[in-house]
Amino acid sequence: MCANRPPGLGVAGAGPSGGTKTAPLTTHLEALGLADQAHRVLLVGDAIDDAEAAHANGAYAVLHTGGLHHPAKLAADGHPLTDTLADAVVLGLRLAASRRAHPACV
């Protein structure tokens, strides 16, 4: 949950499973004033569509194995994956630093 969430704005991925989270995340980023700075955003999620929404919006994504989806399914999709939230943040920061050092790598 985003601590800076404007009043009345729900969690970006809230809603029925199986749909895309790209548009809700876009709305969320716009409401936070981050739509043009998505490259500075790290989304830690527990589903493949979380990572897909982040990438579609230009943000970083790291998946966490502590959610509802089986870790093997998450790992098979190839997105960065961690077992702890702390590790997700560390990995996200490494990804961002790597991309800044090698901007052609997206």
What does this structure look like?
With 106 residues, the protein is of the alpha/beta class. Helices cover 40% and strands 10% of the residues. It has four helices and three strands. The protein has helices at 22-31, 48-56, 71-76, 85-101; strands spanning 42-45, 60-64, 81-82. The protein has a three-stranded parallel beta sheet with strand order 1-2-3, sandwiched between helices. Helix 1 crosses helix 2.
What sequence of helices (H) and strands (E) makes up the elements? Answer: HEHEHEH
Q: In terms of structural class, how would the helical and strand content be classed?
A: alpha/beta
- How many distinct helices? 4
The amount of beta strand, in percent, is 5-15%
Approximate helicity band: 25-40%
Characterize the largest beta sheet: strand count, sense, and whether it forms a barrel. Answer: 3 strands, parallel
Topology:
Elements: H1 22-31, E1 42-45, H2 48-56, E2 60-64, H3 71-76, E3 81-82, H4 85-101
Parallel strand pairs: 1-2, 2-3
Helix pairs in contact: 1-2
